[in-house]
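Journal club side-thread
Mid-discussion, someone asked how the predicted structure for our own chain would compare to the paper's figures. Pasting it here so we can look after the session.
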Amino acid sequence: MRSMKVWEVMERDYPKVTLRTKILEAKALMKRTGTRILPVLRDLYDGVFEGFLTRYDVIKVTSLISDARAVDFMRIHPVLYLDMDIDEAAKVMVESGLKALPVLKSPQEPICVGTLSLRDLLRALISLGYSPKAKSINEVYTPEYVGVDADERINRVWAKFVEDHVPAVLVFKGDRLWGIITPKDLVDQRAWMFHREAEGKLPTPGKVKRFMTRGVVVAQVNMPVDEVAKFMVEHDFSLLPVVDDEGRVMGVVTQEDVVRAYLWGGKPSMEPVPVFAPAPPLVVETYQASRSMLQQVLVSKPIAAASRIKVSDVMDKELCVVKARDTIARARRLMLKTGKTHLLVDDGSGRIIGYVSRRGILRALTVKGPLWRRRARDPEFLEMIATFNPPVVSPDASIEEAAALMLYHNVDALLVKEGESLLGMLTKNDLAREYMQSMAGRAFVENLMHPGRMGVVTRHHSMGHVVRVMEMNYLDALVVADGERPIGLISENKMIFTPLEGRYGGIKRRRILWVRKLERAGRKMGRYVKVTPLLAEDFMVEPPPPVSPRVDVVEALRIMFEHDVDGVPVVDQDRLVGIITKSDVIRELARSSVKPMEERVEEALRQAKAGIKAKRQTMTNRKAPSISP
């Protein structure tokens, strides 16, 4: 096995905090991003490393009014370095009992450049086609585990996490495995928090069954390691219980056990057993990889040839700048005034450190409501949602290469630089407008739109659900439907301007009258009122005229720009079949870039093989004995 380095597999785009960040804010950031680790930096922009926080650290605070800061709980070591082998990095993580660590440039230059987790290691090993040295779970699983009764108090489990660094606790109801609770469950909730500071009367800690995850995905000893590894990478599970044929728990298989199986083989005390390939243990909705997402269309077509249009021909050279210390409210007003979808962020000294987008603000809207209207203790609002160190593209690159870069990094804008000089910005709208103006006849709507009704929601779906559907399917607009009839459109560029605050503060709420049957065969007579946050029907706009699947994509884009929306409903014979969006156009352009790249790789491989063959032939000719006449 070629020894990979840490820099090849680490995560470069990572959330971070400063020394003065409150632990409760760090916990909220972990909940929002799902990260296992938060590097603590001297300043968010210079990258100077001070320490890091784990899930174990942020749940040490058990009070909702705690003023504890990152500096009070952060760890200083261990850390990883860019030039470490992954074998050495894995040993450091396994020995420390931590599933993720910060990555620094070098011992002499303590600049944080990324993070590395066991999940990242497994993802890299699987994607590169490595096979585990230990084939079955029986060779690597851990017989020891921690279990509690469902009625156990949460403070007992909390102590096992904080003091013993237990990765997960199995929850039993009698002799039956009923659920599992992990530090992530405590990060994602706050009702469990029993205060340990002087706040008056001490409440009785809740029971574990209130906070656990019910239903457990399990493994068996004859499962192949690679299948369990893929499942752990996909869902980021810390461990899976290992059960026998009768469902009795035999132990657990952890991420450390699976990494061991790939790098070092089975445990000495364990024996291999014949393996079988089980069905996938769980079917859930997940984010699609950008490669598979490229191929997902209603009606496929041959990949179009790349154009000769350069980034410099379509980029936006008139840019607006805001300060990193500005509030989201100011950025929002500036976007509304100028019509810009992206604003550059200045660190205060004239250095551009990233940008803030409507998409970023939209993501903030789904966490605790309207962020810019809340009274905050710290005024550094843009730092919470800005995209720092965004991808950079050359002005001489093709627009297809730029689209592929957007898709790979899951962003909707790129900075255009030549050397250290910032020349402009290329956004999703710039690419969509260029497609509309110069690429008529390239594709029909049915060749770009997602299949089925992936971009359709109902009027009663929550805003959180709407944003999750957008993120999951790489869409920037959704159709609100009533049966087969489109009644509204939710557009990413419109959502952030919806007034979400009530007259007296707080998140605006709705009262909805629901009617249900009192008996199975009776009429709907039972009425009740449900109070909810705003729903899809509250921030949808009037849908633009629909298009047919067989019209040119240029016509759909023309309607989008005329109505200033990011998508158009697609209707076939008076039946709603989906939506075409600007993000679909980005996918189409990216497809044209991926094919030439694959062809160049194949050509390079052919040339390398031909060179090796010629070299071998030359060496054979040199070794051949000469025959004298």
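Post-session note: The first helix runs from residue 6 to 9.
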